[in-house]
Amino acid sequence: MRKILTIISALAISGSLFAGGLVTNTNQSALYTRLQSRNASTCVDAVYYNPAGLTKLSDGFHFSLNNQTVGQTKTVTTTYTHFEENPKDFVGTVSAPFFPSIYAVYKTGKLALSFGFNPVGGGGGAIYEDGLPSFEMPIANIKPLLTGYGMTTTDYSADIYFDGSSIYLAPQVNVSYAINDLFSVAAGLRVVLATNKYSGSIENVMINPVYAGNPSGAMISAPAFFTAIGQPVNAAKTADTYADAQMKGTGFTPVISVNVSPTENLNIALKYEFKTNLDLTTTVFENKTAGMFIQDSVATADMPAMLAAGIEFRPMDRLLLTTSLNYYFDKNVDYDGQDDVDEERIDKNFMEVGFGAQFDITEKLALSAGWLGTFTGVNELYQSGFTYSLNTNSFGGGLGYKINDMIGLNLGGSYTMYKEGTKSYSGGAATATDVYNKNAWIVAVGVDLHF
C-alpha cells in the first residue's frame, strides 16, 4: 500500500484543468471567456494569443488585468469487484478562485514590445475526501486474500484523503514588428515555472477476519492482525501512510507568430509554440513519504508543441465573427517519464476548435457568445483515476463595456460539459469498469487600460 501515493505523477493535478490540451491552459483572458475564440486577437490579450497582432494597437502603452474564478468537479465511478460499495463514486473538487492573466504592451510605429504573465498549466487545487479507486483497491483486496487463507473476511475500512495543487506560472516577453500593412511577425520566449504540491494519507486500515483470535469477526486493526499472524510485510503495507511533497521545475517555450490582414475587416493569425522540456525535482517534507516520493528524484512533465490558427472577420461594423483552431503535438511528448514518447497511450494529437460572435449594441456596449469543442486523442491506456482526458463542449458569453477611451471592462462566464469516458480492466478474480466525468464553470472579469 505504500506505493499507492507514489503513482501520483505530475499529471495527477497539473494537467489542463480548463480550456486547452492535455496539460495546457488556453483560457487566458476575460475576452476569451466570453468569446471562446481569441487566436486572431488584435487587442491587448494578443500578448498570449497572437503576438504579431499587437502591431495593430495604437501607439502608446496598453495594459490588461484579468482574473477568472474557476470551479471543477471530477468524478470516477467504478465497479471494482471487491469494493464494499459497488458501484462507488470518487469525487474530487477543484477550486481556483484566482486565475490571473496580466498583459503590458508598448507600441511605437511598426514595433511593439510586450510582456505577459499567465498560469499556462494547472491553476487549482484538487481535493479528494475519499481518495481515488487506486488508493482503496489494495485495501479491498485483503478480503479475498484472507478468505483464501481460510479466514472469511467480508469488510474493511480506512481513512483516505488526498489534496493536490498545481500551478505553472509563465512570464512571457515578445517583440512584434509590422513588415507592412499586410504582414506582421513576432518572436517571444515564455518561462514556465512549475510547482506541484501533494498531501495525502491512508490511515486506520481495519478488517474483520474470522479466525481463532477474532471468532466474532469484529473489525480489528490490519497492521496488528498481520503482525500477530507473523506477516510483517503485509503489516508494513497496511500501516498508516502519509504524503507531503512538492515538485518544482523550470522550462522554456519559444513562441513565433505571423499576422496577415488582407483587408480592413479580415485578420488571419498563425502561432507556433515549441515543445517545453520540463523536469520536476521532488522535495519531501518532514520525512513523511519515505518509499513514496523520493527526495531529489526527477520526473518528466514536458508540455507539447502547439500550432494555433485564428480568423477574425467583420461582415459589418457592429458584428465580429471569430474562429480558432489549436493543434497539440502530444504524440511527440513523454508525459510520464517512462518512454521517449507516449505512442502507446495516445492514438492522435489533441485538437480544439472555437467559434465566437460579438455584436456592438452601442458604441460603448458589446454582447458576445461563443462555443469551444475539444477532441482528445488518448486511448484507454492513458485513462486513470489520476488523470483522464475527455471530449468537451464549452459555452461562454458576456459583455464588454467601454467606460471611456482609456478604460474598457470585460465580463464573462462559461460552462464546460464533458463527454463520459470509460475503461474496463481485470486482474485475477477482480474486474472493474471505471466511468470518468467532469464539469467546470468560469466567471471572469478583465480591465483594459490604454495610455
Protein model, in words:
It contains 7 helices and 18 strands. It has 451 residues and is mainly beta. It has one domain: Outer membrane protein transport protein (OMPP1/FadL/TodX) (Porin), CATH 2.40.160. It has a 14-stranded antiparallel β-barrel with strand order 1-2-3-4-5-7-8-11-12-13-14-15-16-18. It is elongated. Mean pLDDT is 89; it is low at 1-14.
Briefly characterize the structure.
The protein is mainly beta and 451 residues long. It is built from seven helices and 18 strands.
Overall pLDDT, averaged? 89
User: Can you identify the CATH superfamily?
Assistant: Outer membrane protein transport protein (OMPP1/FadL/TodX)
Q: Give me the strand/helix succession.
A: HHHEEEHHEEEHHEEEEEEEEEEEE
Query: If you compute it from the alpha carbons, what radius of gyration comes out, rounded to the nearest whole angstrom?
Result: 25 Å
Poorly predicted segments: 1-14
Number of domains: 1
Q: Main beta sheet, described?
A: 14 strands, antiparallel, barrel
Helix content: under 10%
Number of strands: 18
Q: Could you please say which CATH topology applies here?
A: Porin
Distance between the termini: 60 Å
CATH architecture: Beta Barrel
Strand percentage lies at over 45%
Write the layout of secondary structure elements.
Blueprint: H1 11-14, H2 30-35, H3 46-49, E1 60-78, E2 88-108, E3 111-128, H4 133-140, H5 142-148, E4 156-178, E5 183-207, E6 220-221, H6 222-228, H7 232-237, E7 241-263, E8 266-273, E9 279-284, E10 298-300, E11 306-316, E12 319-328, E13 351-360, E14 365-375, E15 392-402, E16 407-418, E17 421-427, E18 430-450
Antiparallel strand pairs: 1-2, 1-18, 2-3, 3-4, 4-5, 5-6, 5-7, 7-8, 7-9, 8-11, 9-10, 11-12, 12-13, 13-14, 14-15, 15-16, 16-18, 17-18
